[in-house]
Amino acid sequence: MQKILPKALLVQDGALSEQQWQTLEALAEAVIPSISLGSSSTPTTHQAVSAVDLEHSKRLVNETSSPGKAEIQLEDAFFAESAASSPAFKDAVQRFIAYSADSDTKAGLVFLLNALATRVGSAALTGRTTPVTQLPLKDRQAILAEWQYAYIPFYRGLYRSFTQLACIYWIRTSPTLGKLLTYPYTPINHSFGPGFPFNFLQMPPSTAKDDMQTITADVVIIGSGCTGAVAASVLAAAGLSVIVADKSYYWPPEYLPMTELGASQNLFHNGGITQVDGGLFSVISGSCWGGGGSVNWSASLQLQSAVRQEWARLSGLPHFTSHSFQADLDAVCERMGVSTSAIEHNATNKILLEGARRLGMAAKTVPQNTGGEAHQCGYCTLGCGSCGKKGPTETWLPDAAKAGARFIEGFTCSHVNFAPATPTCPKRATSVEGTWLSRGSDSIPNTVGTYARRVRLQANKAVILAAGALQTPVLLKRSGLTNPHIGSHLKLHPVNVLGAIMPERTSPWDGPILTSVVSELENLDGRHHGVKLEATTMLPGWFLPLFPWRDALDFKTWCGRMGHAVGYISLARDSGEGKVYEDPKDEGRTRLAYNVNRKDGRHIARGLEALARITWGMGAREVRVSSPGVPALVRGQWSAEEEEEDEEEEETRRLEEWIAQWIEPLVRNGMHSRDAQYASAHQMGSARMGSRARDSAVDGEGRVWGTEGLFVVDTSVFPAASGVNPMITGMAVARGIARGMVKREVGDVGRARL
Q: Which residues are catalytic (predicted)?
């Protein structure tokens, strides 16, 4: 039986005041207002639309919901609903601001909301001396439109920030959208898997302010995700005493999948989204027991030959083209049962494969880490309650536990301690320190009854960092390391998104998420930089907010048609790079700086063009991209009496004109149109591996330059972007580093156990 997730405590110090909330609510209600006929609307609170426009929107929604009497009533309620009509909306937005917004974003938002509540501030920001809370709805919407098309980027940023915030949290808290879409909040035919009975170390409460709890092991691993789990399994199997510690918590199968809102708050870093500086790039990374391997989409692609050769050349490490590296790739795939044999493509993946085939594009099925069995769950972004996905919590961490590894959840590592260097040895990592936060009195994290303890984890042989490419560099810098390559060379696999409405119902949240890939455009520069075209997660609260808000009726209509939608990403193997650094005003918070370069932007736009051709050729009724300023491509209305050849010719012309007018400029300009937006779920390269300290952060054995006993095993060490989902590559790298440690620390006895 599915367990309901209790609501975590809200730290009021980080939330908005009531006046600030009223101002934000007034803008959110302008983005997602109650929509009704002009004759029956209240101008201050409702958006008035004509009967023609409202009936047109309802007809489009009708076509994708097959309404009976009950559904028509739902339709009316859906259009009448506003963003803040549900109390859950306020709670969700307040939590985002309190926990997820960085210091600059939070301070900027508070400043704006305070200013908009005054006559002087309103005049400066809106050109009106009346505060927004006192303006009728149409005037608030006019302000949003003025901001959207403003010449000054600051005002366009206001439009983007307020519309995105309102859209994301309305979709995730709407009481009617899911019902209208017939979107089940747990997968159809879902059954809970057995899970593994993890036993986590517990610390007793202490009244002493500086009372430090010390726990000792041979090896301390920070991070329980894909790479830390593999390293723990290898090292524990060799007879070493291992502790795996993670800042997040384990959620057993009966809590999974969570709701979209619950998952963003409990399974992902920073509430689900880390904004790159500037706000045009959203980065998603897992933060739960098992890390990204607990919330990814099962795609299990090995690193391609050309990229392996590039890595070997860039890093000066022939290991990446060696048989031993291939053996590591194969070993991690074998343990998780990676295979294509039991795949049953859902509608989204079928359309991608068939559409590519009709155009002669190279495409293939993507292997899945599902133990060679069918896995029809489209909800794995929210946690895999069936345990069918054989990620870290189903494989490597149980293996490590059975070999004697110990586990700590809720431990936030602040820094690594070192023994001083000697004339014959660099400084040596001896321990890590941090704060452990217990579960609450109801055994749920972040609820009533939690308490904190300072903890030192003593490492007799080695400290391993597997906190991910966003956290590991910050932890290294907090520990006093100054190598300039730490935090640099961040790769993100930037994506842009295309969505299409198909004539048939797709129920896109059903079935496996990512089982197909179009590789036709993966080498657009002769150096194996290009894009892969893949399906994306099709959960309403993750997919729909990716598309720009143009006006309220248009956005609601788009959302109401999702039952017939498909969605794809144009994912670049990036040649550009960025950096990771700690928020100077908020210790422990990660900040990112990254600008998509022109070449990568051109490649992404080429991918969008290909996806438009694929979906249009498969009969799409409407196509949208997540780039602002590009209008939807809408198929014409054709009667049964009209010639099929005439229809095909006219619709081909319509597609080509749309591409020529809207997509080709993006290709030419490298997506450097005004305010182009991107997303990323892959982070790599921010502590890259190499043969020389002047070019890299860690050596070929994963050891941090200038230290002994400190290793990095996560995707931070990638010499360049992988071009494929980094899970398998990261696991293989971690296995190789761990095998090397066994060889040095244990010798032949330990290797014989592997």
A: 682
